[in-house]
Amino acid sequence: MRWASSCLSVPDVLEAGADDQSSWILTRGLDGRDATHPAFRGDVLGLVELLADGLLAFHRAPIERCPFQFRLDDALRIAVDRLHGGRIDPARHFHPEYAHLSAAEAVETLQRTRPRDENLVVCHGDYRLPNVLLNDERVIGYVDLGELGVADRWWDLAVGSWSITWNLGPGLEEHFFQAYGVELDPERLRFYRLLYDVVS
Predict the structure, then answer these.
(1) Quick one: angle between helices 103-112 and 72-84, nearest 10?
(2) Of 20, 73, 81, 126, which is the active-site residue?
(3) Model confidence over 10-38: pLDDT tens digits?
(4) d(CA 109, CA 191)
(5) What is the SS3 string spanning the chain?
(6) CATH assignment of 32-199, given 2.40.50.100, 3.30.200.20, 1.10.260.40, 3.90.1200.10?
(7) In which region does residue 59 sit, left (phi positive, over 0), alpha (psi from -120 to 50) or beta (all else)?
(8) How far is the C-alpha of 7 from the C-alpha of 194, rounded, in Å?
(9) Nearest by Cα to 166 from 126, 138, 139
(10) What percentage of the chain reaches a pLDDT higher than 70?
(11) Rounded CA gap, 174 and 49, in Å?
(12) Contacts of 166 (CB under 8 A, 6+ apart)
């Protein structure tokens, strides 16, 4: 958050600390309401467009200055580490699309279906509606930045479109992609959604 504050609208960190059992952070509040607020349900297509615009704005952050990485090599290394550490629980972590996979099968699928290249941007890492703050006209802030890092833009597009379906209902994902300015990439969509379940 301290790094992001130089180029994105995020809460200012006032104080932070940790002990043996927990960590904590105190931030200054941001104006606006998160995108799940009922006030935004009157124009759902307009809300989807605001979310796409907000993601585009986030992705304009300068990758050359970002000290955090979540490129494919990093992501798959984390997935393997979580598998070996017994920290992947399909019953708790996997959405219905991937509920048929064991932890080992999920990691093997990620390794086998790894995209050949990456379209790198600074990704939010958890671009879901509760983490996006809006007023009536635009996205004005972002919260929950624990997974921010340089990654393929489809990391955010996959999770963001998934959240639109969870929070607003089916049939809106294509509108989100169009408003953002990309064509659907089904292979990357599946890969990054499974990656989200494995590492988040």
Answers:
(1) 160
(2) 126
(3) 999 999 999 999 999 999 989 899 999 99
(4) 8
(5) CCCHHHCCCCCCEEEEEECCCCEEEEECCCCCEECCCHHHCCCHHHHHHHHHHHHHHHCCCCHHHCCCECCHHHHHHHHHHHHHCCCCCHHHHCCHHHCCCCHHHHHHHHHHCCCCCCCEEEECCCCCHHHEEECCCCEEEECCCCCCEEEECHHHHHHHHHHHHHHHCCCCHHHHHHHHCCCCCHHHHHHHHHHHHHHC
(6) 3.90.1200.10
(7) alpha
(8) 29
(9) 126
(10) 100
(11) 11
(12) 128
Q: Which amino acid would we find at residue 4?
A: A
Distance CA 158, CA 199 (A): 14
Nearest partner of 131 among 33, 65, 43, judged by Cα: 33
Q: Can you tell me which residue has the tokens 């890492």?
A: 125
In this structure, are residues 111 and 101 in contact, taking their beta carbons and an 8 Å threshold? Answer: no
Query: 177 near 156, Cβ under 8 Å?
Result: no
Residue 126 annotated among the catalytic residues of the structure: yes
| Sequence letter at residue 18 | A
- The length of the chain is 200
Q: What is the pLDDT of residues 53-112, one digit of tens each?
A: 999 999 999 999 999 999 999 999 999 999 999 999 999 999 999 999 999 999 999 999
